[in-house]
Amino acid sequence: MANLPKTEKEPLDGLPDAELAARAARGDQAAFERIMRRHNRTLFRTARAILRNDEEAEDALQEGYLQAYGAMAGFRGDAKLSTWLARIVANQALQRLRKRERRAQILPLQTSDDFEPGLEESVHMKSDQGPEAAAQGGELRRVLEKQIDALPDSYRAVFVLRAVEELTVEETAAILLIPEATVRSRFFRARSLLREALALKIDLACEDAFAFDGERCDRVVAFVLNHLKAQENP
User: Fold this and answer.
1) What pTM value is reported for the model?
2) Which of 24, 119, 122, 127 suits a disulfide with 32, CB 3.0-4.6 Å?
């Protein structure tokens, strides 16, 4: 059976960024697609960190890619391609952020005509105590409670009395019938264990933070490629 011809994408997978950039500068959109798919998640997270909004971050990413494609001939390899792209995307995100801030200044939420003394403060207090904030606080509390429950018995008792109940070292020692030095050492150890456990959870959560799933990746790539094709065939 004859060997099937290789697809166009196969030889691109192993190429370094510099070679892909050189090909993209010559108008090779397949090479540019490989660049986008290789760096999509990092660049999306860059924009998302600035804008704190998925949709705006996606728009900034798309505009950044279009700008990068047009400027690809100017990439000299002085910095990594990912760094060069991230600067472009970050600049797009910052531009959007500045526009958002200007709109907020031009269109204040409340005019002086309908201002009531104390109203602004009460609105902030209500927003801080809204359902979303309460849910986030509840989730954080549950995570903390679960990690406290996972502490060894002797450490957990000391931690709850000292940190949760805010008892003194002397009071804790008297309740648990252990020396004050033991209270101090166990409390120190309990806090260390909690820090390690919570840090691990945060590290694991960061792996999936601001997920750039396959659908979003495909949508960004399709948008940019369609836009480039439309420019070639007006």
Assistant:
1) 0.56
2) 24
| Under 8 Å between Cβ of 31 and 24 | yes
DSSP-H helix ranges across the chain: 10-13, 17-25, 29-51, 54-71, 81-106, 119-128, 131-149, 153-159, 169-176, 180-207, 214-232
58-88 burial, b at 16+ Cβ within 10 Å, e below that, comes to bbbbbbbbbebbeebeebeeeeebeebbbeb
Calculate the alpha carbon distances from 93 to 53, 138, 199 in Å: 10, 32, 29
**Is 233 within a domain?**
no
Residue with tokens 């960190």: 49
pLDDT higher than threshold 60 for residue 128: no
User: Sign of torsion, CA 189 194 199 204?
Assistant: positive
Residue 224 lies in a domain: no
Are residue 14 and residue 97 in the same domain, yes or no?
yes
Would you state the structure tokens that stand for residue 117, as one six-digit string? Answer: 């003394």
Q: Which of 12, 67, 61, 18 lies closest to 40 in space, CA to CA?
A: 61
Assess if residue 4 is contained within a domain. Answer: no
Q: Are residues 198 and 144 in the same domain?
A: yes
- Single-letter code of the amino acid located at 25: A
In the block, residue with structure tokens 């000391």: 158
Domain encompassing residue 183: 140-207
Instruction: Count Cβ atoms within 10 A of the Cβ of residue 41 and give its class: 0-12 exposed, 13-18 middle, 19 or more buried.
Output: middle
pLDDT in tens, 135-163: 556 777 787 888 888 888 778 888 888 88
Residue 179: inside a domain: yes
